[in-house]
Amino acid sequence: MEEKKIKSIDPASIEMLEKAADEGVTTSFDRAEDQKPCPVGMVGSCCRNCSMGPCRVPLPKGKTETPEIRQQRKGVCGATAETIAARNFIRMIAGGAAAHSDHGRGVAELFLTAAKGEAPGYEIQDEQKLLQVALDWGVEIGGRSNQEIAVDIGEKALAEFGRQEGEILFLKRAPKKRQELWWREGVAPRGIDREIVEIMHRTHMGVDQDYQSLLRQGVRAALADGWGGSMIATELQDILFGNPSPVLSKVNLGVLKEDEVNIIIHGHEPLLSEIIVAVSQDPKMLALAKAKGANGINLAGICCTANEILMRHGVPLAGNFLQQELAIVTGAVDAMVVDVQCIMQSLPDIAQCYHTKIITTSPKAKIPGATHINFDEHNAIESARAIVSAAIENFPNRGKNVTIPKTQTALVAGFSHETINYLLGGMFRASYRPLNDNIINGRIRGVAGVVGCNNVRVPHDAIHTAMVKELIKNDVLVIQTGCSAMACAKAGLMVPEAAAKYAGEGLASVCETVGIPPVLHMGSCVDNSRILLAATAMVKDGGLGDDISDLPVAGAAPEWMSEKAISIGQYFVASGVFTVFGVNWPTVGSEDVTKFLFRDSEEVYGGMWAFEPDPIKAATLMIEHIDKKRKALGIDKARERVLFDMAMRREL
Ligand code: BF8
Ligand code: SF4
To answer: Which of 17, 224, 447, 457 could connect to 192 by a Cys-Cys bridge, CB 3.0–4.6 Å?
Structure first.
């Protein structure tokens, strides 16, 4: 008998999958059964970069690579399996870096428009961060208004994308030693657009055909994402919408309300959703909702837009990537408003079986069957009103087949890099010192960033939660972003009480003293740049070496699916972090490329990739790496001495 594969570990998702099946609705979970991955493409051995192909160069089944076989594994133009795998890999980086960076560009454009006073509804919320970025970028502060400073920052931010020479400005935030390494290796990125275009050029038929040279360009573009496009997005969003601080909220489909207009905001850019949050509280809108028979307007988020408005406003999370279709299956969503990235084309099809209105808002992302209401940043409030009104008007159209799962879980989010600083060190002596001290004394073994997507090829949320539980059990403090954060929030890992329940004794004692959960939500996927800054702050605080690669830290994306995840992974590796991915690995078609990424990059960058689909084994790899770093720092003995008697607890 064939074993029944678990689709999800999330009870709300399982309930909605059953409802979908009963109602004859097809979801990505069903399509994944019919649409098996192409085994050649999956390992990076298919090239379709010109019309002499597509060329497939897989290792013949059951064979090990010999010089003869290697000789035969070539495309029509002679491109080797190495070249093809490396080209495919860095094209993924180009896709991911472009997505994050074009988001960053959109934020920079709005930022400049707002600074000039031409975008009503947007104002500078975080003056401190405005001045910090001004300082970092050499923008004159003395005797100038915030608006004047912001105009200069907006212009400089936009210039970062097209910078032809030199290096991107935020690179200077990295530890000195890391910057020197990047210069030495020739990977310090110039303009963000330039590095992405260069990937497309180099991977065109007949250009760069040395896999190591190709991979180096991949590093350059990925660094332009992490320390460039993504960091610009995060920093300017914080200035404009406010730097997140700890906030209590709820997660899962149970946050939808039977008696209120449910609007789900899905996608990535908070530019529109910030205004929708404000407009949905407008008394006129509430009166309209009442007139249509609803008791209020209930906002909830999916994917990274959800994380953005959760972090800044405590708006509840309806769910992560694989729940976008399932939210509609509840029959209770009156409008799903989408902007860019990770939005399934199946949404309008599913919406046809219910009453949900799918509203696209970005000129860059249209979907046949959806209603397009263009988001105009000069008239953001009007755009938002039109969207919220469309949702309200749709409320009376709800059918009889409404079922909202009861499941919802509490979480605390809002841990920006600065907040962690304050929480640990206090408002007047903000610092990472207490974190570093607790790492040095062994109560905290190390820090792991667990991030990234859901992937329908593995049981939904299962890999994230198993990995994170294993890490905290072993005294590793976990920081999270993206859909991974939502998975662990649903599992109840993001409340302070989770420390006593799931964390090892050392980590639990620190969490209890500071009052934080053992798993910290740091935001959306562009907010992985917060993790880079947190790691840098740890280095600068002292006692844990002088580069990110010296820190007892590790990263993972155990359920990844997006090209953005590959770009993120690559900028973490190139910043010195050991990074483990699950699901599958896109270069296994070339042994040399895979070895280079898994092993040789450690020699160059002090960080390297690994692939391990089993979450416990992957967590073990991360812990082993953390222990290796502790040993190199000479703090491995401290953990052996840690005995948690009451005297020590008091002294924390
Ligand atoms: O940018 S984690 S599925 S939603 S790609 Fe997409 Fe992956 Fe979720 Fe956010 Ni990030
Ligand atoms: Fe084939 Fe070379 Fe064309 Fe790729 S570029 S499709 S390997 S001929």
So the answer is: 224
**Is the CB of residue 564 below 6 angstroms from any atom belonging to ligand 1?**
yes
pLDDT (0 to 100) of residue 427: 55
Cα–ligand 1 centroid distance for 57 (angstroms): 31
DSSP string, 328-344: HHTS--SEEEE-SSS--
What is the predicted pLDDT for the residue at 646? Answer: 52
Q: Measured in angstroms, how far is the CA atom of residue 189 from the centroid of ligand 2?
A: 28
CA dihedral 318, 321, 324, 325 (to 10 degrees): -140
List the residue whose alpha carbon is closest to atom 9 of ligand 1: 304
Instruction: Dihedral sign for Cα 93, 547, 636, 501, please.
Output: negative
Q: Which of 23, 528, 628 is nearest to 268 (CA)?
A: 528
In this structure, which residue's CA is closest to atom 2 in ligand 2? Answer: 77
Cα–Cα distance measured from residue 113 to residue 123, given in angstroms and rounded to the nearest whole number: 11
For the stretch 572-582, pLDDT in tens is: 999 999 999 99
Spans in the chain with pLDDT lower than 50: 1-2
Ligand 2 lining (C-beta closer than 6 Å): 47-50, 52-55, 75-77, 79, 84, 205
Beta strand 357-360 with 371-372 is parallel
How remote is the C-alpha of 133 from its chain's centroid?
22
Backbone phi and psi for residue 14, each to the nearest 5 degrees, phi listed first:
-60, -45
The answer to whether the CB of 231 falls within 8 A of the CB of 532 is yes
pLDDT at 417: 85
Q: What angle do CA 24, 25, 27 make, to 5 degrees?
A: 140
How many degrees, rounded to 5, is the angle at CA 464 between CA 101 and CA 424? 75
